[in-house]
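yo

u said u wanted the structure for the complex thing, so here. seqs first:
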Amino acid sequence: MAANGPLGVAVIGVGTMGADHVRRIDGVVGGARVAAVADVDGDRARAVAETVEGCAAYTEPAAAIASPEVDAVLIASPGPAHEEALSAAFERDLPVLCEKPLTPDPDSALRVLEAEQRLGRRRVQVGFMRRFDADYTRLRRTLAEGGLGRPLMLHCRHRNVSVHPYFTREMLITDCVAHEMDSTRWLLGQEITAVTVLRPAPGSGPSEALDDPQLVIFETDGGALVDVEIFAHCGFGYQVRTEAVCERGTARIGDDHGMVTRTAGRWGGEIAQGYLERFGDAYDREVRLWVDAARRGEVTGPSAWDGYAVAAVSRAGVVAQATGRRTPVEMIERPAFYGPGRR
Amino acid sequence: MAANGPLGVAVIGVGTMGADHVRRIDGVVGGARVAAVADVDGDRARAVAETVEGCAAYTEPAAAIASPEVDAVLIASPGPAHEEALSAAFERDLPVLCEKPLTPDPDSALRVLEAEQRLGRRRVQVGFMRRFDADYTRLRRTLAEGGLGRPLMLHCRHRNVSVHPYFTREMLITDCVAHEMDSTRWLLGQEITAVTVLRPAPGSGPSEALDDPQLVIFETDGGALVDVEIFAHCGFGYQVRTEAVCERGTARIGDDHGMVTRTAGRWGGEIAQGYLERFGDAYDREVRLWVDAARRGEVTGPSAWDGYAVAAVSRAGVVAQATGRRTPVEMIERPAFYGPGRR
Amino acid sequence: MAANGPLGVAVIGVGTMGADHVRRIDGVVGGARVAAVADVDGDRARAVAETVEGCAAYTEPAAAIASPEVDAVLIASPGPAHEEALSAAFERDLPVLCEKPLTPDPDSALRVLEAEQRLGRRRVQVGFMRRFDADYTRLRRTLAEGGLGRPLMLHCRHRNVSVHPYFTREMLITDCVAHEMDSTRWLLGQEITAVTVLRPAPGSGPSEALDDPQLVIFETDGGALVDVEIFAHCGFGYQVRTEAVCERGTARIGDDHGMVTRTAGRWGGEIAQGYLERFGDAYDREVRLWVDAARRGEVTGPSAWDGYAVAAVSRAGVVAQATGRRTPVEMIERPAFYGPGRR
Amino acid sequence: MAANGPLGVAVIGVGTMGADHVRRIDGVVGGARVAAVADVDGDRARAVAETVEGCAAYTEPAAAIASPEVDAVLIASPGPAHEEALSAAFERDLPVLCEKPLTPDPDSALRVLEAEQRLGRRRVQVGFMRRFDADYTRLRRTLAEGGLGRPLMLHCRHRNVSVHPYFTREMLITDCVAHEMDSTRWLLGQEITAVTVLRPAPGSGPSEALDDPQLVIFETDGGALVDVEIFAHCGFGYQVRTEAVCERGTARIGDDHGMVTRTAGRWGGEIAQGYLERFGDAYDREVRLWVDAARRGEVTGPSAWDGYAVAAVSRAGVVAQATGRRTPVEMIERPAFYGPGRR
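structre next:
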């Protein structure tokens, strides 16, 4: 990076999510520019690169990451491709923003942890963007301040209008509930120790094949109990809600708000239809903070440890879902490298 | 009334409102029975009387009131007929619940005041039922407790789905806003001293002929400023809302609530469509308290003075509406008979 | 009962709940009077009887029920005393309103079912008052109308400010969650087939000894999944909330509402502190409908079968709580006497 | 501006508002940099300039604007200084973002209008930032789509926790209600034709000297009626709310939302305490769009005509406030240069 010049970012994977990050770095966030993009679909890579001045297109992630114009790497390719891209970035000691999941399973995540530790300093921020949402931040602060007493339960709702046809039952856990795994850990400062998955008779239509919705239960090492309703084809809106039940009170985020109309015998408002409508600001803030830190030579935010922990809980969740049984989470001890285990 | 037997009530006027009171005394409120009904429409009187055991039907109010079975009188006939029915009740010294307006104009209301004073004790409760609504009661208590400081403004909304075809522009003031005249006086413990009526270009359809909606401004002898939106053909629901703006905070009643649904991209609930849906409990409580007091030989609740005051403010309001000018309210001094002027 | 005279009611048990019913029959509901009260504490019986004209006091339920002044029986004594009082009422073929639980266990409840069937017609209404609450009624109608599709899950919250010192862990299930057992059955028209009880580390203070709060899971024969948070010492208010998650939308009742104040940097309102504040209207309506039906010689509302079903689910719940295991509910087939099994 | 380099901005006036814009251009908005700042307080100018790399400090606005590093001008000095700074920018034909008011009175605003027209294209965007707020945007779209019918009334609330000691009664109109003047014009696409100011007895403390709060009434050339509560020392929060009353329904923005806590018998949340908390996103969007347009050589957004119109309405408002009388607004015809008068 030229002294004080903008951070040159390589965006790896320019599907929906990656292309949105390109737009964000180009138009919303100051201090950075998209220097390169890579996508297995070369036409797609070129099409995106053409929207940005001075941006090169690649089909090989490693080639993009090797470009001298590149100072930092944003990985938005499918999960199975993450480990290789992370390795390439680690070789150049570049700061990385890696979309969740860090990797698809705890074993590969562990390899990433070990590689990062060998570099001697944090290089990876994992894309758990809810930590940058104003409401989540307020809820965490409220819990930490302690006025409501110790948190005992979290009731979480995670509803999507619909998901892609290739979505699998396992992805309810690994793609959707993964967000609640991280936010539970972050809100409570506790690790998840066991997972149970309960299921009603599914809804009809696309829900039927997915066994959708489900109720996922977490237990934590701090004794908290968390229930997560995941409903991938709820049909009516994108809704993410958390109610924390504490010893002396409750706190709830994620209720609908905005303009209220009254007409034809009804009052109410519109429900957000997509995650960008609900979390767009959080993504902007996430990337801005990553860019700011990278320009200072640092990486902060959710760590590779957080990515590993979610991979471990996801594995237990998939087993719990398949067997119908309470499944303990198997995890290594938290390395000192990643700081103390409780907030 | 037989010692400890139920209170025999004559209901004068059995249109929509009167028939509803017959149902209420018969089925909801304990300690009273409908002994007689009167209506200029004899068929209607007989039809209603037949629904109640031992109830006589009359076309003449005076005849019903004269019945030895009658211990108390509920007047629900049109306003112009009230004075005569009140006189008949006064002759027998009976307790009266008189639907608003007490009488249609301040002069006749003054005659009622004087007649009641000659009887030496309160005989009339005027049907300002909002004073018996849980939310209004809570708002009044909050203002009186003083935690929010002195009330400076009230913002009131009064919306009907629609009104009858014979409704006139004046009735926006005398029939609808009359409720806010009383509730302003009761919430603040102040008299209204001047009225101004402001008007946008009216809505189309039935609103056009009525110059509907309007914004009615009250000034009070305590220095408060009150604005009332009256919208008689709002089309979407029955909505009565008051926001009190005080020195150190605000208090609002009348927001929509109840079951909230989320479907098809919208969240929200249903709006009450009629006054009984919104104020049914208040009517029940009003009549129950009147019956209880009457059985003890007393009359409490909104007094004939309150009826007179609203008649005086209504007259000023009608002038203000016709002239477009701020119009002072002309009232006599409050007789000591009716207690101190401020709460 | 004298033809068309008021229904003479014997109130059995005049602790908090029974005394409140005496007040309700005496002052709120028309068409009935308290003819007798019975309580093991004779002083308490006499003290309550003295507040009502012509009311006799007894220490023996059977003696009160035998009084010729008595046309109907309201049982509000502790659960273990219900079976004997029901028998006495059955001997005289009187209509009964029996506070929940019908009896404390399924075996005794079964004996009541059989005794009622021998009488050849329904004599018992069980006091599941939520069925008379306006919000619950609206939710049930919404689910039945089908616009939201089939119900898949219910999320229920049941929070008390605090409970009595003698409250036991089992009573969380049998006293508190019993309400959700009935409302689940009634809202969905399904029977509960299994119960699981999950628990976080309890809150401190009085919650600790009770293992409070808990999360109770129901499965139903219609494939629905229900979670109930019971929090007996939440400290901040009485809160009962249900969110139904259906195929095409959700419906939620029990959010806080009422007057909203804005002061000192906060907006919001007060939370109900007790069940009478929240369900007082439902109790009034319950007793009014029972009195109206009894005067017609009928008994409607929640039946002895509903009481038995809740006793059976409660037993499974207590086992589930003690063992930590999913526990199937054991129930007899629904007798034809009690009508079809689904709404 | 170097081809494709960042836009060099001169920020004129670096008090609270100007310093916040410096921070925004430097850290939040991409594509621009602060090249120069000017402030009559040279120390302040230098202190701010030192926080930004390569930023020069001036005491003379004209000197800053003349710098060859400067491509665009953001004016955040006090209103009386605006005309001179605008002239200097016009001499160099630079795009300007001018904080409201455009100028303090309609005569000077008219001179600005004329000068801009002589340049032959729009050079000025006026800082009415509410037009960039998501809720205002949604309300305007809803009104324009017409589903609710023609707008008849707007009810606006504008409350500040407190204002500076030097704040005057006139500033309630020219500084605070000026926002509602613009948003009324923008939401309705109508010009304001008359102003009336009504006042209760003021609150005590700092409100007393200001005659605070007040109720300001606008009439528009489309027949709408608008009431604005301005309460400069409400004490509890920064609150900006608008309810549009249309022929077939209402739409309301500005209700409090966010995290809801339940504790100690109360439910509710926090109220924003300052305008940046409420409108920070709108400011970001405003500046971003101005920068984007300026880099394309354009100026869009609220125009100098909007600034002039608000100055004209403000003058009428100050007269109405002083005289207590309804005061017509005097304005020139809208020049064709500024496009058609209705949206």
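Chain A touches chain D at residues 4, 26-31, 53, 134-135, 138-139, 142, 147-148, 248-253, 255, 257-264, 281, 288 (CB under 8 Å). The mean pLDDT of chain A is 95.
cya
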